[in-house]
Amino acid sequence: MAWRSSGSSNAALIANLAENGLIKSDRVRKAMLNVDRAHYAPELPYQDSPQSIGMSATISAPHMHASASESLLPFLHPNSKVLDVGSGSGYLSHVLANLIEPDGKVIGVDHIQGLVDLANRNMSKSTEGKELLTSGRVQFIKADGRKGWPEGGPYDAIHVGAAAVEAHGSLVDQLKAPGRMFIPVGDRFSQYIWVIDKKDNGSVEQQKSYGVMYVPLTDAPKE
Q: Which among 15, 53, 55, 183 could disulfide-bond with 160, CB atoms 3.0 to 4.6 Å apart, if both were Cys?
């Protein structure tokens, strides 16, 4: 039903995602409704499809952002800490920040400085986004996402927005107990979403979910 969820406005897009069962909770609906995708997607912002944002990166389709948010929702509380690996345009970092109001923090990590700069510019297009940045509730950092950002952890939730060749142990190590990671894993020919839970006792459970197609989580291009 994802391909039927496009709309003529941000409100129409979110309404269609909810009507088609891709947004299931009122919290996620409100969080996405309060972020205008036009600030983050350069063309056809209300189309439910991935789009290029330059620098060999994409902004995922809105239904994938909805799916990730719904999956991580049980671990998103008013003071949660969240790591967004491959934060790209900054869109999902903004949505996640809305889900952990008023005291939570999102750290977005990308391996290209141009994407870090882009995310900061995009988020600054709205009054609410500027406040998230100036308050420190959202921070974008250039780093190798495969290694996470241990300085800001441990994290209640980790979202990975590019396909990893494996569920990197360094990311699992940065999860709180309990905590959850949403990560696409695989090569260019076969990728699946994995939901990885760290239990209260520190044990780890992994669940293979549905097939996807993401850009790879790779080294930064040589400058």
A: 183
Q: Which two tokens stand for residue 35?
A: 């972020």
5 catalytically annotated:
no
Catalytically annotated residue among 49, 56, 60, 124: 60
What is the spatial distance between Cα 90 and Cα 130, in angstroms, rounded to a whole number? 12
Please write the tens of the pLDDT for every residue from 36-81.
999 999 899 999 999 999 998 899 999 999 999 999 999 999 999 9
Contact 74, 183 (CB under 8 A): no
Whether residue 216 is preceded by a cis peptide bond, meaning omega within 30 degrees of 0, is no
pLDDT reported for residue 15: 97
Task: Report residue 172's pLDDT band, with 50, 70 and 90 as the boundaries.
Answer: very high
How much is the pTM? 0.93
